[in-house]
């Protein structure tokens, strides 16, 4: 549970502290008042990136050269404090005044689930799809994040090497060997995770009596021999083209409706419903291991039509004991009767 947050130079929020209710927080204000920025700052405190944009540099207020967020929260009955400083180049993270060297040390210390207009990117864009699933897999198996970061580091070294005028073949072989070993580990964890997540997703379809035939790709583990053969087959072409052609990072997870790719043949309402089911499944995944979960709902009135909105309100009933942050341009009738709440007015 988040007690309060101090935000400096984060998007349009220059310097402001917000105190929160342990259950329901309603953030009210016109468009452009900073409602989404407040939610993003909360999310950034625990994942050190935005849920709306890919490049964190654009989170820094355009008139400043750094951002700073300090968040006080309670986990398992104990007070905690996390500070994040980012100058566009380097992030400094302190947890209870102890310097954090690896993000995996604090990743998912509090699990944050977001419902927002930006969720469409999960369907439309592989980068955001990867980000969504890598976040969940890292919760499922924390070593996945360590393996992934090592993989990305070596991948970048290989990318630089391929572009160099004097290519060192022996060094390229070393990079490929390391990437093969990491790809096998990442692939194994990904297969195990998706098997569990898809089971949760399919069970949710039955529970909610969703008649749409939604489905998610079943992922099959790729062993060391597969990756060795793949890297060997593209080696000369990569050298010739001076760029990376294949690897674990190129793999995708597809979504379907009636066995057809969802993003190409579905209405906006169907896509919103599918995203809602993905996020609901995220909650059920976390719930198996922890109650340290908070929810961010960004403008749910405009985000969902009346039918899908009822599903959201039913979820809100189910998560009554969890901390929630809900933005809107005006107070939503559904919450008028809730006495135990905090209203934050932004202008």
What does this entry look like structurally?
This protein is an alpha/beta fold. It has two domains: 1-110 and 292-347, 3-Layer(aba) Sandwich (Rossmann fold); 143-270, RecF/RecN/SMC, N-terminal domain (Glutathione S-transferase Yfyf (Class Pi), Chain A, domain 2, Up-down Bundle). 43% of the residues lie in helices and 22% in strands. It contains nine helices and 14 strands. The strands form three sheets. The protein has a six-stranded antiparallel beta sheet, covered by helices on one side. A hairpin with a 2-residue loop joins β4 and β5 (78-86). The longest helix is centred in the middle third of the chain and has 39 residues, at 169-207. It is globular, with a radius of gyration of 22 Å. The chain starts with a strand and ends with a strand. The mean pLDDT is 93.
**CATH homology-level superfamily of the largest domain:** P-loop containing nucleotide triphosphate hydrolases
Reading the helices and strands in chain order gives: EEEHEEEEEHHHHEHEEHEHHEE
CATH topology of the largest domain, which one? Rossmann fold
Q: Tell me the total number of β-strands.
A: 14
Sheet of most strands: 6 strands, antiparallel
Distance between the termini: 26 Å
Strand order of the largest sheet: 2-1-4-5-6-7
What structural class is derived from the secondary structure elements?
alpha/beta
- The first-level CATH class of the largest domain is given as Alpha Beta
User: What would CATH call the architecture of the largest domain?
Assistant: 3-Layer(aba) Sandwich
DSSP helix fraction: 40-55%
Oligomer: single chain
Whole-angstrom Rg: 22 Å
Total number of domains: 2
Share in β-strands = 15-25%
Shape label: globular
Low-confidence stretches: none
What is the tally of helical segments?
A: 9
Give the overall average pLDDT.
93
């Amino acid at each position: 549970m988040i007690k309060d947050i101090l935000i400096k130079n984060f998007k349009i929020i220059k310097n402001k502290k917000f105190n929160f209710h342990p259950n329901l927080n309603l953030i009210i204000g016109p468009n452009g008042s900073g409602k989404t920025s407040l939610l993003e700052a909360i999310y950034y405190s625990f994942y050190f990136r935005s849920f709306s944009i890919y490049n964190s540099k654009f989170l820094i207020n355009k008139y400043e050269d750094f951002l700073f967020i300090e968040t006080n929260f309670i986990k398992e009955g104990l007070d905690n404090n996390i500070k994040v400083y980012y100058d566009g180049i380097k992030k400094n993270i302190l947890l209870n005044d102890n310097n954090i060297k690896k993000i995996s040390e604090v990743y998912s210390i509090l699990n944050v689930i977001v419902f927002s207009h930006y969720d469409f990117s999960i369907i439309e864009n592989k980068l955001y799809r990867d980000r969504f699933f890598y976040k969940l897999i890292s919760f499922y198996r924390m070593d996945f994040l360590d393996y992934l970061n090592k993989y990305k580091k070596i991948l970048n070294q290989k990318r630089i090497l391929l572009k160099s005028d004097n290519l060192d073949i022996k060094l390229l072989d070393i990079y490929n060997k390391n990437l093969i070993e990491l790809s096998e580990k990442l692939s194994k964890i990904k297969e195990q995770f998706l098997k569990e997540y898809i089971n949760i997703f399919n069970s949710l379809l039955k529970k909610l009596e969703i008649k749409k035939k939604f489905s998610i790709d079943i992922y099959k583990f790729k062993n060391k021999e597969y990756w060795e053969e793949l890297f060997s087959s593209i080696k000369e072409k990569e050298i010739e083209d001076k760029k990376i052609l294949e690897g674990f990072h190129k793999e995708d997870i597809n979504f379907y409706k009636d066995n057809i790719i969802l993003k190409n043949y579905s209405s906006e309402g169907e896509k919103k419903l599918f995203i809602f089911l993905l996020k609901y499944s995220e909650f059920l995944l976390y719930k198996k291991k922890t109650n340290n979960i908070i929810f961010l709902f960004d403008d749910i009135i405009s985000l969902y039509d009346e039918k899908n909105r009822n599903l959201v309100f039913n979820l809100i009933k189910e998560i009554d004991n969890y901390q929630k942050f809900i933005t809107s341009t005006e107070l939503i009738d559904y919450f008028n009767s809730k006495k135990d709440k905090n209203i934050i007015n932004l202008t």
